[in-house]
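Folds abound. Consider this:
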Amino acid sequence: MLFWSDKHRKAFAVLEYGLMTRAPLTVVTGEVGAGKTTLIQALLRKADDDMRVGLISNARGDRGELLRWILNAFDIPAPADADYVRLFQIFQDFVLTEYAAGHLVVLIFDEAQNLGAETLEELRMLTNINSGTDELLQLVLLGQPELRDIITRPELRQFAQRVSATFHLGSFDEANSVAYIRHRLRHAGGTGDEIGDEAARRIHAESRGVPRMINKIADLSLVYAAAAGLAAVNVDLVDELIGDGLILIAAPEPGPRLVPAQETERKRDLS
């Protein structure tokens, strides 16, 4: 069911590039429901046998708790009363042991915007385990657009300097939304025509091209069509579904904040 839009191909290429070049830090951002987690799942299916991969979702807490999240991701036992120094030593020993065995340790954080600036800086410190020309530990961060805002803060400039590759996964344009709907219908056993092009374009407009929202609207449209005895979803049926309030869509992200000079110019234009 995975649909490879141009943006998804590029994002996946960035992830593969990060692993191939043993980049210490790779970052992919995107709106909620854009398909970041789907890409990671596809990447893990292609992971080499010489990689030890740990996946963490929605990690929170101070630096000691972060290390416990990490150890848990690799199924590494640690004493309940271990302090930060002991936890760090356990993880470092694990990384060095895996390196000696010819394995690369890859740590993936999903929803990394929840980590916050201090925790991201702590992650940067973990990359100090790497020595010389050999990269023993790779970090891959996936998050919502605010992750980029956090990383580009002045206090995280050292973190940003260690990011070898980054990509922002945007929403589908109309053509990709229509192709995406057809793709999923066909892979589900249909012809691809169960949702007409005009209806698909209406779904795109309502979903703003976000794959997760496209799925929801398209699925419920098919339910409505079946209930009405229709062979295909038309635009009137999509409008009926939306009018019935079955779909909750958040307001779009606010635009960039104007700096004072821009605000002055805008007021001058309005006067």
Summary: The chain is about 50% helix and 15% strand. Residues 44 and 53 are 8 Å apart (CA to CA). Residues 253-271 have pLDDT under 50 and may be disordered. Residues 6-169 form a domain with the Rossmann fold fold (CATH 3.40.50.300).
